Amino acid sequence: MNIPSRSTAVRRRRTLAHVVLRDLAETGHTTVPPWWEDEIAREFGGLDGFLAELSRQWWTAYAVHLDALIELGAGDPGQAWADVTEQLPYLRLVLDAYAGEPALAEAERRHCDVLRWTARREARHAA
To answer: If you write DSSP's letter for every residue of 9-56 in order, what string do you get?
Structure first.
C-alpha cells in the first residue's frame, strides 16, 4: 500500500488550487465551472474542501504580509488586506464570490479567531 505523505498531499492540493485559479482568471469565471468539479471532488472531497484551501492560502498570505508591515512599523491591517488583494486579485474574487458558503465562512472564522488570539498576546521582549 502506497500512502502519500502529508506534505505530498499538501503540495498536490496547492498546485491544483493554483491551476484552477489560473484557469478561472483566464476564463473570467469567479465560480468553479463544471469541468473542474470531478478533479476538485477527488482531491478536496468537494467544493467545501477546495474553498477551505483557498481560504488557507489567503489568510496565510495576509498574515505574512501583515507581519512584514508590523516589522516595518506600519502594521495597518487594512493596508495589508489591500496589498494582498492587489497581489492575489483572483483569489480574493473567488473567495468573495463564495462568501455565503458555510464551509468558507467556517474556515475564515477559524483564521480570524487565530488572528484575534494572536493580537491579544503580550509582546515578548528580547532578552
So the answer is: HHHHHHHHHHHHHHHHHHHT-SS--HHHHHHHHHHHSSHHHHHHHHHH
